[in-house]
Amino acid sequence: MIDSMDEKWFKKEIQQVFNKGVRVIYEDALKMIYEDASLIKAIKESDFVPPEITGSFLKGLTKPISEKQEKEKQSNGYEVTKNYDDWEPATSESFIQYFVSRYQKISSLLWKRQSLKSAISIVNVNRARGDRERTAVIGMVKGIRDLKSGKKIVEIEDPTGLLSVLLPPISGYDEIVPDEVLGVVGRSGRDIIFAEEIIFPDVPISNSWPDTGESWAMFSSDLHIGSKKFNKEHFSRFVKWLNKEKKVKYLFLAGDLVDGIGMYKGQQSELDFDSIEEEYDALADLLSELREDLIIFAGPGNHDASRDSEPQPPVPKAFAKKLYDLKNVVMVSSPAWIRVEGILVLMYHGTSLDGFIDSIDSIKSIGYNRPTEALKIMIKKRHLAPLFGRGRTFPDQNDFLVIDPIPNIFHTGHIHYAEIGNYRGIRLISSGTFQEKTEFQEKLGHNPTPGLMVLTDLKTGKSELIDFSKQDVLSQSLEN
Questions:
Q1: DSSP code string of 138-181
Q2: Could you state, in order of their start, the residue ranges of all structural domains in the chain?
Q3: pTM
Q4: Which class in CATH covers the domain with range 216-474?
Q5: CA distances (Å), origin 164, targets 189, 195, 198, 277, 350
Q6: Does residue 438 carry a pLDDT above 90?
Q7: Which of 71, 200, 345, 396 is deepest in the core (most CB within 10 A)?
């Protein structure tokens, strides 16, 4: 409780909270803050602060860290800073709240852009008299129509109304997709804006690399244990190499740990096991061959025994008990934000990449051979799966797929193609696979890179490809 002597301090601290972009603090939240002043510090240190602070937001902000998590953090030098393991059942109201959450989170990022600081609500644009005043708005894309002239009509909405945007071919013109939140600057007319600039939430132009890392990390995904196409020889070299390279302290596995059961018609004939439990047991046996001081972060993919809508919770212990029993394996969600030696890694399987690549003309023909180009656009949009309905998305009351905070490393799998990139200081990693090309990939014209994984120096951020399909890989060393 704040006593009378601290009222002046309290008002000053509250003003600092408003300076973070907060517009409203509801009565229930203000009462909680008044009774527990430590909440002010929690708000100020939070990576995301919504424009409207409610009591439910403060409850989530103060969710306690378990004793096990705290011990792991202290003893192993890592912290799972955001992990999706708590949600409410989907309702008609949660569908609405899901999009409200997305709008609030991303609009708060856009509000920080200089050209959008004077942005007005759509209802106020609609009150204009057609005098072509320069106007800025922030909205969620409801629909897109191509005109014969080469221009587009983009409908955007905010909590106050709906507005048409006439869009000539300008920067970002071909990258707009439904359900994303963006800013528009242009000249206002009656119920329309003649756009001059499209502004994506994006990230700062330069994100410096933290001067904290000392070790190396290996990035992999798409093991597909249980598939007859799993390449045991490649994986055996992978294990031997990691066991001899003690400077590599972390291994990130971005989903599709196993091949799953009943994923598609006729899959059973392509599997080595009859049950998902047997697949996870086989995975645990393989990972147990790695040295115990190597910390392994394992998230789910669309082939794993997690729910098939995103975000995906960690694989349940009921299916993977032997995996959970390994002391150096940390089971996480997809996506998950993990901090190792001061370096923040966003690990996401990448299930949404199929719909994402297919919906954006600039990457449609190259996305499966240049996956980091798709990752760049995701970062620009600050969202992992903006197109609702192109994949399975769980309508949470809190949109967990917004890219916030900004990572130092953005790691995905799913495409089965290894590539390294860089966008505004963020290291982009699409990791390879241990599964040989399947008939399905052959039909689609995909060109996977089995055995090709990514190694990153956490001290410098420099990444390189290590090819475990080659017999001489064991002669390569970090000492060379």
A1: EEEEEEEEE-TTS-EEEEEEETTEEEEEEE-S-TTGGG--TT-E
A2: 4-63, 111-199, 216-474
A3: 0.85
A4: alpha beta
A5: 10, 10, 14, 52, 32
A6: no
A7: 345
What are the Cα distances from residue 166, in Å, to 109, 183, 185, 189, 293? 24, 13, 11, 10, 57
Beta strands in 300-432, from DSSP E residues, in sequence order: 329-331, 336-340, 343-348, 409-412, 419-423, 426-430
- Sign, Cα dihedral of 57, 62, 65, 67: negative
Q: Pick the closest to residue 411 from 359, 461, 470, 358 (CA basis).
A: 461
The answer, yes or no, to whether residue 265 has pLDDT greater than 80, is no
Fold category of 111-199 in CATH:
OB fold (Dihydrolipoamide Acetyltransferase, E2P) (2.40.50)
Rounded (10°) CA dihedral 177, 178, 181, 183:
60
Contact by Cβ (8 Å): 80, 338: yes
Same fold, 111-199 and 216-474: no
Q: Which two tokens stand for residue 330?
A: 């940390």
68: confidence class by pLDDT, cuts 50, 70, 90 = very low
